[in-house]
């Protein structure tokens, strides 16, 4: 089923994804006993917070300026968005991290989340024509890839 979504609605979803990631990384940080892991998780949480702030600013700009090319309505498969929203990786806030005792399993969950986030942002990028917005979104995608590399480092720490 095709459903109409505004870029503003899609960006609001991106904000929620980033906030969810920030909260999850902070919870994991609170549960970790390893200072190096704590430091990396704090860094990642702050990165996600910065991303949410940028997406909020972008959404505000789109909402203010009807003439921005990014305010167009998109026709997307509603089932795709529904499936995306129901995926566990986008709802890490609902995951009980205390029951996951294996650090590598936790990293797998976080890496899956980061990869899904990158795919979502790549999808958003196909609908944006405003060059500065595309450039910044590409920077965020690059940062999400850096998060994956940092998570990989965590798996090698004691």
Automatic annotation (TrEMBL):
Domain Rubrerythrin diiron-binding: 9-153
GO MF annotations in UniProt: metal ion binding; oxidoreductase activity
Superkingdom, natural source: Bacteria
Pfam families: Rubrerythrin (PF02915)
InterPro entries recorded: Ferritin-like, Ferritin-like_SF, Rr_diiron-bd_dom
Record-given protein name: Rbr2
Lineage of origin: Bacteria, Pseudomonadati, Thermodesulfobacteriota, Desulfobacteria, Desulfobacterales
């Amino acid at each position: 089923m095709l459903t109409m979504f505004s870029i503003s609605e899609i960006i609001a979803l991106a904000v929620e994804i980033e906030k969810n990631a920030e909260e999850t990384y902070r919870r994991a940080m609170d549960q970790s006993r390893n200072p190096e892991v704590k430091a990396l998780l704090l860094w990642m949480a702050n990165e996600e917070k910065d991303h949410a702030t940028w997406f909020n600013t972008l959404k505000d700009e789109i909402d203010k300026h009807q003439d921005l090319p990014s305010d167009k309505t998109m026709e997307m498969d509603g089932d795709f968005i529904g499936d995306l929203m129901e995926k566990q990786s986008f709802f890490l806030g609902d995951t009980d991290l205390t029951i996951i005792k294996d650090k590598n399993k936790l990293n797998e969950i976080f890496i899956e989340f980061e990869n899904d986030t990158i795919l979502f942002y790549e999808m958003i990028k196909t609908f944006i024509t405003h060059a500065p917005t595309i450039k910044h979104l590409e920077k965020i995608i690059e940062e999400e890839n850096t998060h994956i590399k940092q998570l990989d480092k965590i798996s090698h720490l004691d």
